[in-house]
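step: validate -> pass
step: tokenize input -> pass
step: predict -> running
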Amino acid sequence: MQASGQIVRPFDLTRFETRLNISGADLNRLHDLTGLTLPNTPPYRIAGRLVRKGPRYDFEGLSGRVGDSDIGGDLFVLTGRERPYLEARLRSRRLDFDDLGSLLGAAPATGRGETASSGQKIEAARRDVTQRLLPDATLQVERVRAMDAKVSYRADAVNAPNLPLRKVSLDMTLEAGVLTLDPLAFTFSRGDLRGKVRLDARPNTPRTDIDVRLTNGRLEDFIPIQSGGKPAIEGPVMARAKLTGLGNSVHRAASTADGVVTVVAPKGEIRQAFAELLGVNASKGLILLLSGSDKQTPVRCAVADFSVKNGVMTTNHLVADTGVVLARGHGTIDLGTERMAFRIQGDSKKPRLVRVFAPITIKGPFMAPSVSVRPGKAVGQGGVAAVLGSLVNPIAALLPFVTTGEAKDADCAGLVSEARQQGAPVKVSQTTSQKAER
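step: predict -> pass
step: emit ->
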């Protein structure tokens, strides 16, 4: 720390003005000097004008860098209370997304040359070896209980490789051991993720409640598979996660989480080759894929709905209704072990001369899952309409949970309406099924 300034009243150290420059490996390490609970960060350097007027300290016009992100704004601290109180308005012209992850104990991707402390480099190396994604840094609950705060933060631009993230904003309050982020907002190139996070650090085991919702997103932004310069899948996507977990780290809270997670793609288009291969249709999908065909087929509705119990996400519904294939699946995602296991089965909606439909399995750790095809006998076609009919009530129940403003425009809602008019569940006669098989 370096400071230069003046004492306003001789020998009265309760009033002074100074230009302060401070740098270090982690803002959290300032606790013993300031008594403030500051977040874990990468190496930082910050400067500003520090003014003390009795129990109030103002840090005005602060500017500098935290990791690879710039930071600016104003803050003040009130002392002489049961708990110190900090209030701040902060802004970044450009936020490096790895630096945001550091607040949760995640280490930067040091392989990309990100700024990191020695401890973060060790943590990054451990993550690369264990292939673990969720950070396990322990929350210092005593410090969370020891102060109050109100912080507003805005990032005008974001550097986030592999994510279409453009802006970040959050309003945080900390009072008597309860930390609340409301709202927490991420603005993507198309779409917004907004919600609320509440961390109650008063019990011996902290409790975290999360309720976040994605609206107006686009599949091609999150699944950037290209085929001849054109996205392999495109269309709107919406989602919601509502979870409660117990634990003093992100990983421990996730491994005990209960709640629901739902993702809905209400309409769109998918490269027909990929749709055919959802059921491994040898006569059609492989030919289209090998020929490099960019022919598209509509995605009428796709739903992935999970119940979460004790850190394990289990599918309630996993279905994709495309123009050529109805794909259904089931499986689990274990947030504790960070492993997944899915089985997806497709069924053609159109007659095929030769069909070898076999299940696709997706297994393994989050960071390196493996995809394989389980060989089996050719299956008979039939029951597609019946399956669609059986999905009517679940889809009708899920849409209001995910979104209230877009449900009426979704093709999923059209599917519900159409099936109700026809009288669900709809069954396919044996004659029709046999004709389709031939």
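step: describe -> Residues 280-291, 377-382, 405-410, 422-438 have pLDDT under 50 and may be disordered.
step: cleanup -> pass
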